[in-house]
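Q: For a teaching session next week I want to show students how multiple molecules come together into a single three-dimensional assembly. I've collected the sequence lines for a complex. Could you give me the predicted structure tokens for the whole thing so I can convert them for display?
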Amino acid sequence: MSTTTNTKYLIIGNSAGGIGAAEAIREVDGVGKITIISDEPYPAYSRPLISEYLAQPCPLEKMLYRKPDFYEVNGIQFVLGEKAVAINPAEHTVKLESGGLIKWRKLLLATGGTPIVPTMEGIELKGVFTFNRLDDAKAIDTFLNEYRSNVKAVVIGGGLIGVSVTEALVKRGVEVTIVEMKDYVLNTILDEEAAALEADALEQASVGIITGRTVAKINSQTAGEVGSVTLDDGRTLPADMVIIAIGVKPRLDLAAGTKIKTNRGIVVDRTMAASLPDIYACGDAAEAYDFVLGENRPTPVWPNAYEGGCAAGLNMAGKKTEYTGGTSMNALKYFGLNIVSAGLVNPPDDGYETIINRHNVTYRKVILKKGKLTGFAFAGDIEKSGIIYNLMKDGVNVDSFKQQLVADDFGLASLPESAWRSKLAKPSASAVPITAAEPEEEAVIGD
Amino acid sequence: MKKVYVNENVCMGCRLCEVYCLLKHAHTKDLIKAYKKESPRALPRVRVDESGIVSLSVRCEHCVDAPCVKACLTGALSRDPVTGLVTVDEERCIGCGTCALVCPLGVPKLDKAQKKMVKCDLCQDEEIPVCVANCPNEALVYMEEKPDTNPVVNYVNNN
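A: Of course. Below is the structure for the complete assembly, covering every listed component.
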């Protein structure tokens, strides 16, 4: 028997975007019914922590993105382990796999991304994994626990997911080889020099890196299980397990059955509204505004999902708000090396200026166009990179102090006075100074 | 909510704020031990940036719309709606540095030994934060601001 439930806000997806939206809705609407549905059987957890989990399995409580009472405190109806299978935009309903129907007034698609899995021989073998959600980490953990020792893994793809699973596997004593199709690892988020520092750190941890190649097929020795991989140059690498870490693509299956406009992701405007009324999208599923490019594109990173979710939530609750935009941005700490990057780290043409300061393991690079920052990458010392990020986000013309941006002693005072003044808060007119209570005077006894 | 403000006109970059902050967050209460014996050495949560005659004592401003809290990957950072204090739950922090990447002042500090981020806590067990209390020029002032204005509008729910 199918049941119909009503909700004011329906959020599909229970990660950064969905939680951001729910929190923003509650900022302006304290009582409107919010329903979150998730096809994962867990309350919201920090997805980036799945590599920490794989390295050292821990209870879910340690991975929770919000306090355990989050749903209760915020009056959120939480439907977990349930899949939405179809949207009816005209009726304002969503059909669930279990047969139920949810009628909503505002809908948010925060469905995230799905790993790209190539079609290749052997992809169905036991020992082939993706690494996108907690259950993936659990499956790999179970697999490793079944093996006694000397496990060899091939990670297909040297991007963020590939390097993150590699670090976890190395910590578990697995011998890892990364096979990266392009010229260097982390090529979508780092420039070649910063990536070389990461590659050094990987190699010091005895990780094998093969670039410019891809895996053509996965072979089995014992029937049904991974035994080796064959590269596109014919080489064979022994492997007990294979991790597919080529990348993620926006999950569009729900939107696909409707007239919701999609490109690479769900197309949204600056209020995070999709092309049909009362439907919004955010996070890895959507193509939201990138302030560096000045146009929409998928930037599948956690902070952007949360921010986009907040903007969507405010608009869903009736508070008109523009998403200020995000850009590609990442902070990495694999194998003890801190790296941050944001914006365009690889200039697409000659119209850009690059300034680099490099010594030992400190690396600072900024990229400018017409006096404004369009990207940067810092390795080693990443503190204060936020000053650079915000100069970029605010579109400040940095031409007159651009050399300072990469200096070792760069700080707030390196900026022109008007710029640092705008960053430092000033007391309001009503602020009252707090002073320490005067110590009581000691009694003078005698003379 | 309480805030520390800097009067940069009288900050001469003596860095005593850094010294006392480090001591406050060290295990020992002895300055020499804190600097010379503790390993790893405690980190000051305040930083003095200098350029020419400009020196600025910079620390977390506990922003209302804190970018670090929004960007935090694990939910370790949060802002108390009542006190306005932005705190890091060191149990949940993985030291990734995303907060440092988005902070307009670049103040989150990475404790590389502990693999955690550390930040200004306004010296919760002190009447006045130690940086303010020990600033010789009164370049740092501690002030009480009105609480955030963030009224929750309870829309009438027809559902």
